[in-house]
Amino acid sequence: MAMRAVLFDFDGVLVDTEWAIYQSWRRVFEDHGHPLPLEIYTRCIGSDFATWSPKIHLEELTGIGFDWHDLDARRQQEILLDHTHEGPMCGAVALLEKLASAEMPCAVVSSSSRRWVGGWLEKLGLAGYFQTVVCRGDAPRIKPAPDLFLEAATRLAIAPADCLVIEDSLNGVTAAKAAGMPVWVVPNRVTASLDFSAADRVFPSLEACALEC
Known about the structure:
Number of domains: 2
Number of helices: 9
CATH topology of the largest domain: Rossmann fold
Mean pLDDT: 94
CATH superfamily of the largest domain: HAD superfamily/HAD-like
Radius of gyration: 17 Å
Order of helices and strands: EHHHHHEHEHEHEEH
Shape: globular
Number of strands: 6
Strand content: 5-15%
Structural class: alpha/beta
Distance between the termini: 8 Å
Strand order of the largest sheet: 3-2-1-4-5-6
């Protein structure tokens, strides 16, 4: 595939953060007598709770209004503990090294906060691989809207059609397609059961992606 830049989603693509976040929510639901199946939870992957909210869903299931400030603080502690020894996704560094050797511009494009994404990139030594990082707040709307991807293309001065997106979520695929960009998907253990037929390609791993870049 002809491409002039590669735009990476962050959570679930470069670092396996999605699983611990899902597990924290699953525990909250089970503590209140309800399951949280992946096929329901994945509605918010790649976007935010405006797309689908586990908070609203649990309140509707239980008829209870929760103190989300305290629950979110507890979940955040659990998530950070679960991520203590987390590293880059398998194959991520090798793929980034290959793209860097080819002088291919790369960007991170994420619906998460800059503090979250930037902190991880610095912690794992990945920041130097990217010419720009576009996060929530850098464009009017997050995924599934195309705004973040279009902002990244503008910053790189590359036409959207020449930017390859690597994603793991349906919201991300929708956003990339709306931006006029080809999109490859590498599902993770949270999104593996989803239908990614709208993507241009689906790969089992970043190593497999590297063979095609």
